[in-house]
Amino acid sequence: MNYLAHAWLSFHQPEILVGNMISDFVKGKKRFEFNEAIQKGIMLHRNIDTFTDEHPVTKAAKQFFKPAVGLYAGAFIDIVYDHFLARDKNEFEDEGLLQFSQFVYKILEENSNALPEKFARIFPYMKGDNWLYNYQTLHGIEKSFGGLARRAKYLDNSAEVFAAFEKNYEELQECYNEFFPAVKQFAYNELKRLS
């Protein structure tokens, strides 16, 4: 799962959301430097990632991208899941996605002292370009794919994987439709377990 899903699967709990959003920037025992609620968000993020990576639907979805990006397929699928979540009317009605995006940015700003340095550097771009809201558009996904390709060590560009995304759009939508209710229930149960 990518930023939008991790934020949404924090169930509107601000400090859980902060931990869930920054988890990839907090290595090993560094999590103990945060308060208990943020630590729970960090652990929730890690458990969601494990659940996602091991789920049979995610493994099947990766096959659409493996010819183009090999082992990076999972990272691109995370972005794809965010795209379909952003367009999911069962999760976000009308202006719900815009309001939720603004809520996330507000919470992160209010907790700016807890943001790791690397996350704090990308946050202005996330907010300024409204990444969370723009996951719903093909242009937003194309930009996200391009950003991932630039950060990856062994990828030249994202054109081939974006072409695979467009070609297999309906099949990937079906993967999301099957997977998301399962990960949402998992995250809800996991948050209760961590509390």
Element layout with pairings:
Elements lengths: L2 H6 L5 H9 L13 H19 L1 H7 L3 H4 L3 H14 L9 H15 L6 H12 L2 H4 L3 H14 L7 H9 L1 H26 L1
Helix pairs in contact: 2-3, 3-12, 4-6, 4-12, 6-10, 6-12
List keywords for this structure.
195 residues, globular, Acyl carrier protein phosphodiesterase
Structure description:
The mean pLDDT is 93. With 195 residues, the protein is an all-alpha fold. 37% of the residues are buried. The radius of gyration is 16 Å and the shape is globular. It has helices at 3-8, 14-22, 36-54, 56-62, 66-69, 73-86, 96-110, 117-128, 131-134, 138-151, 159-167, 169-194. It has one domain (3-9, 14-20, 35-194). It is built from 12 helices and no strands. The two termini are 22 Å apart.
Produce a short descriptive summary:
With 195 residues, the chain is mostly helical. It has helices spanning 3-8, 14-22, 36-54, 56-62, 66-69, 73-86, 96-110, 117-128, 131-134, 138-151, 159-167, 169-194. The protein has one domain (3-9, 14-20, 35-194).
Note poorly predicted spans.
none
- Count, helices: 12
Main beta-sheet strand count, sense and barrel state: none
The ordered H/E elements are: HHHHHHHHHHHH
| Helix percent band | over 70%
Class from helix and strand fractions = mainly alpha
Terminal Cα separation, in Å? Answer: 22 Å
Q: Which percent band covers the strand fraction? A: under 5%
Number of domains: 1
Number of strands: 0
Q: What value does the Rg take, in angstroms?
A: 16 Å
Approximate shape:
globular
What's the mean pLDDT score?
93
GO molecular function, one term: [acyl-carrier-protein] phosphodiesterase activity
Organism: Parafilimonas terrae
GO biological process, one term: fatty acid biosynthetic process
Protein name: Acyl carrier protein phosphodiesterase
